[in-house]
Amino acid sequence: MKKCRARIISKKELCEGIFDIRLRTEIAREAKAGQFVLVFPNDPSRLLGRPLCICEAGGEELRIVFRISGPGTAKISGISEDEEIMIEGPLGNGWDIKAAAGKEVLLLCGGIGAPALLQLAKILGSQKGKEGGPKDVKAVLGYRNASMNSFLASDFEDAGAQVIIASDDGSTGIKGNVIDAAKTEDIKADVIFACGPLPMLKAVKSFAAEKGVPAYISLEERMACGVGACLGCVVKTAAKDAHSHVNNARICTEGPVFEASEVIL
Predict the structure, then answer these.
(1) What is the 3-state secondary structure (H, E, C) of 39-105?
(2) Please, what is the end-to-end C-alpha distance for the chain in angstroms?
(3) In this model, does residue 197 exceed pLDDT 70?
(4) pLDDT of residue 43
(5) In this predicted model, what pLDDT tens digit does every residue of 86-107 receive, in sequence order?
(6) Taking 80 as the threshold, does the pLDDT of residue 221 lie above it?
């Protein structure tokens, strides 16, 4: 884990309020799929970093795709190309890639949860058909409506995933959420990886239990320190946590990825 300045290589708005920023930083060399970074707004009045998932990482380039959700992320979205910003990471535990070995993989991406799964899709796509790799990868991406431009869908296709689109109002793809789309398409899966809003993840947990397959979920949560010291981002767990000796886990350190059966949503 490092805290250092990163230079903005490029910035674009994928759809209203959702930004795609590429950074040049040595942190990219260490980043793993499913981890996150703390991004600090260039504003001395805002001391806490904003936890943003790592969308892609390789060499010295790190990509973050995020939605403006408050003043901090609004400040980050306003940074110009070639400016620098302070970041810290990589943080958290990412996806269990070995869990996909020899499996039919289903990625369930709810809205802004999609960026957390793209690097995983790329890794699995490159391993597909090889020893230790997945049999196949399907990705269901859910959006509110067509105005979201099915952002990142083409990236998942380029990664080698078969992509199914869903939208709440039916203005693009299948009408309904990602679970509705998976059922409509009668998708068979041996393992599920998912990220999205909490109601969706609750549905994913139930869907996976119904199918009798393991599900790995990435939890989105507001954070303060981001390194496990403040206990500000905990989730109830089935087992007692070795750190706090109660039934919870810190999303920033034990997570953000958990096996769905381990957490109480």
Answers:
(1) EECCCCCCCCCEEEECCEEECCEEEEEEECCCHHHHHHHCCCCCCEEEEEEEECECCCHHHHCCCEE
(2) 29
(3) yes
(4) 85
(5) 999 999 999 999 999 999 999 9
(6) no
Q: How distant, in Å, are the alpha carbons of 107, 108, 181, 182, 228 from that of 172?
A: 19, 17, 12, 15, 40
| 34 and 110, same domain (yes or no) | no
**Residues 132, 135, 141, CA angle at the centre, nearest 5°?**
115
The total number of structural domains in the chain stands at: 2
Domain boundary pick from 28, 60, 91? 91
pLDDT classification of 246: cutoffs 50, 70, 90: confident
Residues 54 and 121 in one domain: no
Q: Which residues constitute the domain of residue 181?
A: 97-220
Split at pLDDT 50, 70, 90, the class of 184 is very high
